[in-house]
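Shift notes (night). Ran Large-conductance mechanosensitive channel while the centrifuge was going.
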Amino acid sequence: MIKGFRDFIAQGNVIDLAVAFVIGVAFSAIIGAIVDNLINPLIGLLFNAQDLNGFKIGVFGIGAVIGAIINFLAIALIVYLVFVVPMNKLKERQAAKNPVVAEVAPPSEQELLTQIRDLLAKQQSV
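Came back to this:
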């Protein structure tokens, strides 16, 4: 059981996932600071609130929800621009360097039966 667990942990997928998680948390902290200290005060000026957390509609603290949405969108945009776009470009370059050879599809069942019929007919005529 321990050997199986050790093999599972040593797999590249688990290690890659752990690294991605740590980097994601670090980016989240950076983007959160940018959103909290730059973007939220600008939006707070638009709504005449000190920050988004102070913006309320009636009894509902809608400002915190707006801030969380902005924070999520900012993180998603940064992750897309920093990770997804470069990785897609890299994959495109790799695909251009190593074109995939088109695999020949195996014949269908009907084609196989037709070939067998023709071979049997040829054997009987000989």
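The CA atoms of residues 105 and 112 lie 13 Å apart. Residues 62-97 form the longest helix (36 residues).
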